[in-house]
Amino acid sequence: MTKPSNNIYQIKVSLIGAQPPIWRRLLIEPDTTFQDLHRIIQVAMGWQASHLHLFQAGDGRLIGDPAEDFEGMMSFLDERALSVSSVLSSEGQQLKYEYDFGDSWEHEVKLEKILTGEEAEPLPKCIKAVHQCPPEDVGGLYGFYEFLDAMDDAAHPEHVAVREWCGGEQFDPDFVSLVQINEDLLERDALFSETAPEFAPHASDFLGLSPNQVHELLQSPLNCPSVFKPLFNAEAVNRELDTAPVMRMAKALIDDMGDKGIRLTGKGNLPLKHVKAMIDAGGESIVFPMAGFSAARSEEDVLGVHLTRVLMEIAGYTKKEKGRLLLKKSAAKRIEKKGWLTLYMDFFAAALSQFNWAWMDHREGMEDVQYIGPFIFWLLSVKGGQWLPVQDYLSDMLKAFPRLPLAAYPVSYASEEQQARWALESRMVRLFRLFGLLELNPEYAQFQEEDQQMMRCTRLFEGMFVRVTG
Which residues neighbour 82 within 8 Å (Cβ) at sequence distance 6 or greater? Predict the structure, then answer.
């Protein structure tokens, strides 16, 4: 609304460490809450509000969303009840705003001036914007600079891949639209509103979740504080990381790459000796269950190996250069600085949002399996502590999302429901098994007793997905 009188805060929000500088100058009302300031920064900078965030005042006080601080472990002050003027009251004072604890985008928020008089236009308002903010999930500043190098150079070996990752668009770091920022600032309440998906069935189909909770889970499975605690015991999860086949294969591949990389085949695949090393690391029964029927002749014959290599590329850990597969220097630094859990979470995020699940079974249709797939996390948290039939889980998925079979292409040999079950099992169950989040009962033979197969969640899953509700 239009500011009738009193003071106006002029603040500058700068992305710490960015060169050239990336910043916004804004006019806001002093009684703006920190919740609204979070939204203002997100819109003005160009972020997408898909990760956790936190403010830190100059005296060390932490200010944030109580839903992201379960049981008060971080002693957050409630951002909904605290005004900016209660923390920043004098010109020159500043605080820190951190967004996305993985990429760790740290911002300096400085109160530049306290203006007096009347502002004729609605507040908040962005009056100066310098440079576009990095894309989401680019891998921090190191990843952003590598992204820019590849984007700017058409001859760069990763130029095409980077353009595809960016949606086919050219990224211009100098372009910022003040008009668009200010239009979006005025619409921020609508942009941040929580609405249920149009297809949402009755809440009883969601085993205790409300439609809004399901929407949050599907939209942001790694950041859904109304469903799962946002902070987990990293030390406990780290102990279980090597139970995930994808982690064991990734470590084997990184060891094989070393400093010089791996010479790829003429088709761009890994040589067979590296494929076999990754099969051994991941476990043949999970990674290559067809081993008893045929030998692996190529990387493409082994889904688990091929998937691991593709995810490493999508997540920004590897690059191809002069026929070799190399570990990026920024990725090596990221692993050294933040550990293997960061790599796992980067892979997991890429698998959920950037990787096309339909590639795993090459079936047409059923694209919605990828969107609804994270609902299995809720099912596993509710009933995954004991062996239960895989088909029971698939039935629960279809009960929650009864329209999924409608996306199947008509075929003479299978009903639409059967096709939906196949897609859920070949994509969702297979992927999360490779990530070590669920396990199948080894007492049931693969291919011979699949209809009787049982599954349960793993200790890794229990460490990562802790329910907020009882």
Answer: 33, 34, 63
Q: Cα separation of 203 and 399, whole Å?
A: 11
CATH 3.10.290.30 fits 2-132+174-191, yes or no: yes
Express each pLDDT in 210-245 by its tens digit.
Answer: 888 888 898 889 888 889 987 778 888 999 999 999
216 in Cβ contact with 226 (< 8 Å): yes
Pairing relation of β-strands 62-64 and 77-78? parallel
Report whether 379 contacts 397 (CB < 8 A): yes
Question: What is each CA distance from 465 to 176, 381, 441, 469, in whole angstroms?
Answer: 38, 7, 21, 12
Domain ranges of the chain: 2-132+174-191, 235-355, 366-464
**Tokens 């339909």, residue?**
358
pLDDT tens digit string along 161-211?
A: 888 777 777 888 999 999 999 999 998 888 786 543 444 444 447 888 888
How much is the pTM? 0.60
Residue 360: the pLDDT is 85
Round to whole Å and give the CA distance between 68 and 232. Answer: 11
Taking all residues of the chain, what is their mean pLDDT, rounded to a whole number? Answer: 87
Beta bridge partners of 457: 438
Three-state SS sequence of 260-284:
CCEECCCCCCCCHHHHHHHHHHHCH
